[in-house]
Amino acid sequence: MAILVNKETKVLVQGITGRVGSFQTKMMIEYGTKVVAGVTPGKGGTSMHGVPVYDLVEEALVHEPNVAISFVPGPYAADAAFEAIDAGLDLIVLIPEGIPNLDVLKIIRYAKERGTLILGPDTPGIISPGKAKVGGHPHKLFMEGNMGVISRSGSLSYDTCKILTENGIGQSTVVGIGGGPIWGLTEIDVLEMFERDDETHAIVLLGEVGGTMEERAADYIKDNITKPVVAVIVGRHAPVGKRMGHAGAIIEGDKGSAASKISALKNADVLIAKYPRDVPKLVSQFLKK
Amino acid sequence: MRMFEFQAKRIFREKGIHVPNGRVATNAVEAEEIARELGGPFVLKAQVLVGGRGLAGGVKFANDPTEVRKLAEEIFISEIKGETVRKILVEKKVPIKDELYASVVIDQEERTPMVIASSEGGVEIESIAEKFPEKIIKRKIDVFKGFSDFDGRSIAKKVCHDRKRVESFASVLKILYNIFEEYDAELVEINPLALTPNDEFVAVDAKLNIDARASFKHRELIEELQREFMKPTAGAKLREFKAVEAGLTSYFELNGNIGLICDGAGTGMLTLDIVKDLGGEPANFCELGGITSPTLMKNAMDVVLSNPKVEVLLINLIGGLNRMDEMAEGIISFLNEKGTSVPIVVRMTGTMEDLGKDMLRKAGISTYDNIYDAAEKVVELAGRK
């Protein structure tokens, strides 16, 4: 079944006519994703890569989209997200990284009230290999299979899936939750979905320094996850007090270090791989059944 | 983005939070003049953007205007934790009966604004939390509802021992929350919030950090910040400054000789870990961000290679939203326009990699397919420590 997106997913692209939005729309279509409509205010009536473009989400609803992916930049992102939430979409993938924090809080809070899921912001999106891609993944590196992958970082998930694919280990769904410091779907939310998904046999958790999300995920795994979990935590050599690219990747005092995350995960019987290249060996034992 | 104290206090005053009487001086003579107008005793506070200013000699006390001038001269010629002082805030010292704490932050885990207050101000909030955890009062504020009077009253009743002060403390909190909202703050903090012998609350210190993602809403304030900030003229600080101007997501220096450029946070940290595990010493961490452009890559090379410690450069690219043809274009245009004698090792994979690799090959640059081999190569070139 995979989680969040599959063959039936109908995608609406917000910001479809921008530089990144239009290119990534083309890539998603090439991959076989059903991109049914796009929205860019002022460009209604035109088309992009054969996809009809509308001024408003409500006008695009004739194509019955259920998932939106937004390339709308920071200052306008909240408005676009509210529009998709009001239109009743199930999931919104927020690609941009420049959305003001207070807007992110409002988006998440409003979405929760209306039953819409938010992935991101600052996320590469989501891919269920062989079924659909709603994001910017280099899809050649992915392959259909039974590993569920959760990552804060897009690039780290690409590196990990590349090595899994090279070793013949496919993925059910790969979810990039985003760089933080505020997240819609969290590691725990996605763990819960993978636990329920029949197609997912084992889970790879790709974490990084900063905050306490992995520590909380470890607690959750201990009590709720029956499937095997393998984790990589990057930033073992990250200095204290420096932002490691992601807004959420900063060690503050003794909070957020890789050592703390690794020890919490080990304590929950999660196997720790030093590098992505060590993941295939660790997961293959769970898949040979 | 941390604002100067004088900017934060100006905003506090405009919104109705009492701050000490005072003005900023740009030289010692002016400091003395301000002191004569104010009447003593005095506090001199260096306007710098680093923490721990007091211990580094950036805060001094004086009894008369002549002493103010003398101390101002000392502060102006000193550096506070590497920062040059361009302005000193000269204030009339506030008599203090009690010191409290108040702040508003975004709680990342709870995904909500959070008001924090304590009866134990004057020291860092971390040490209050350590010594008197029960004396830290936190309250989540609904981002749509905003701060209501009863929110303030509820916090104030737990913080103020004297019922007389509940309403005035609550009103300080309400104004503070409104500043947080209006200025898209990551942090707005008063520590200490002084209670004077006249039972008046005065913000002796003021901190306002604005969310950089919302900087487009607060241009005037940020332009002022940039005007007043002493631009670094050399060294690591200058390169870090240039990196921000160039739009790099992250750049800071380390002590080694291996320059790093990566196009994602996760892959960047992975690269750092692998290089260090192999015995290499990175000279910097540099992340382009997930959505980039040829110009950004060119600028990144310019910044990283201007560090004289860099003896070899590792560029690790794994494109998703980021296109490898655009990265190749950036690398080639840097080499054509500026050039370098530093050996460059490139790892490239992902979106449009065939085109990107082909462009580099034609420019005489070979690429690695995986980061482990590329890191081995770069550490070998740099020499293990």
What's this model, at a glance?
The complex is a heterodimer of chains A (289) and B (385). With 289 residues, chain A is an alpha/beta fold.
Task: Describe the overall structure.
The complex is a heterodimer of chains A (about 290) and B (about 375). The longest helix of chain A has 14 residues, at about 100-115. In chain A, the strands form 2 sheets. Chain A has a 7-stranded mixed beta sheet with strand order 3-4-2-1-5-6-7, sandwiched between helices. Chain A has a 7-stranded mixed beta sheet with strand order 9-8-11-10-12-13-14, with helices on both faces. The two termini of chain A are about 20 Å apart. Chain A has about 290 residues and is an alpha/beta fold. Chain A has helices at about 20-30, 55-60, 75-85, 100-115, 155-165, 185-195, 215-225, 260-265, 280-285, and strands spanning about 10-15, 35-40, 45-50, 50-55, 65-70, 90-95, 115-120, 125-130, 130-135, 145-150, 170-175, 200-210, 230-235, 270. The radius of gyration of chain A is 18 Å and the shape is globular. The mean pLDDT of chain A is about 95. Helix content of chain A is about 35%, strand content about 20%. Chain A folds into 2 domains: about 10-120, Rossmann fold; about 140-285, Rossmann fold, CATH 3.40.50. In chain A, helix 3 runs parallel beside helix 4, helix 6 (about 185-195) runs parallel beside helix 7 (about 215-225) and helix 7 (about 215-225) runs parallel beside helix 8. Chain B folds into 3 domains: about 20-90, Dna Ligase, domain 1; about 100-225, ATP-grasp fold, B domain (D-amino Acid Aminotransferase, Chain A, domain 1); about 235-380, 3-Layer(aba) Sandwich (Rossmann fold). In chain B, helix 2 packs antiparallel against helix 4, helix 6 (about 150-160) packs across helix 7 (about 165-180) and helix 9 (about 235-245) packs antiparallel against helix 11 (about 295-305). In chain B, strands 7, 8, 9, 10, 11 and 12 form a 6-stranded antiparallel beta sheet that branches. In chain B, strands 1-6-2-3 form a 4-stranded antiparallel beta sheet. In chain B, strands 14-16-17-18 form a 4-stranded parallel beta sheet, sandwiched between helices. Chain B is built from 14 helices and 18 strands. Chain B has about 375 residues and is of the alpha+beta class. In chain B, strand 10 (about 185-195) and strand 11 form a beta hairpin.
